[in-house]
Amino acid sequence: MGSTRQKIKIEVGSFKAAYTSRGQAPSYPGVLKPDIMAPGTLVLVVWIPDGTISIIGGYIFLSGDFNIIFRTSMSCPHVSGIAALKKGAHPEWSPLAIRSAMMTTANPFDNSESPIKDLG
Q1: Is residue 93 within 8 Å of residue 86, measured between CB atoms?
Q2: Could you tell me the end-to-end alpha-carbon distance of the chain, in angstroms, rounded to an integer?
Q3: Lowest mean pLDDT: which of 2-16, 44-58, 74-88?
Q4: Which residues pair with 60 in a beta bridge?
Q5: Do residues 39 and 75 lie in contact, with contact meaning Cβ atoms separated by under 8 Å?
Q6: Do residues 45 and 78 touch, judged by C-beta distance below 8 A?
Q7: How far is CA 104 from CA 26, 91, 92, 99, 117, in A?
Q8: Residue-wise burial string across 30-52, b where 16 or more C-beta atoms lie within 10 A, e elsewhere
């Protein structure tokens, strides 16, 4: 029996979700936020499971080589991972230096080289 492949539709372009913070905070009008944006909506999360990946009917246990799900609120793990990689490459850098490096090297374009759209 041949291998089975699943096709995943990949759309070109990204957007800033409507629920994402933007602009000035009412309590601090001189401060613009957010400093850094990262993918956070409908992100594919994949990992190698250490046991059952799914249960059917309470008594059928399914296993597999990997597990994949959609998740939201993934921008914190993305940014934290980038910060950890920066710290590993530059252990002498302070947290502010790492933040500055991420802010000044960020790309405002999506995967089609168009500006990231704002749905808010």
Answers
A1: yes
A2: 48
A3: 2-16
A4: 56
A5: yes
A6: no
A7: 25, 19, 18, 9, 20
A8: eeeeeeebbebbebeeeeeeeee
pLDDT 10s digits, 60-114: 988 888 888 777 677 788 889 999 999 999 999 999 999 999 999 888 887 778 8
Distance CA 42, CA 80 (A): 18
The CA distances from residue 4 to 26, 69, 82, in Å, are: 53, 18, 34
Identify the three-state secondary structure at position 40.
coil
**49 cis-preceded (ω within 30 degrees of 0):** no
Q: Taking the model in full, what pTM does it have?
A: 0.60
**Which amino acid makes up residue 40?**
G
Among 40, 39, 64, CA closest to 51: 64
Tokens 């957007």 appear where? 15
Q: What is the pLDDT of residues 13-39, one digit of tens each?
A: 567 777 776 777 778 777 777 788 777
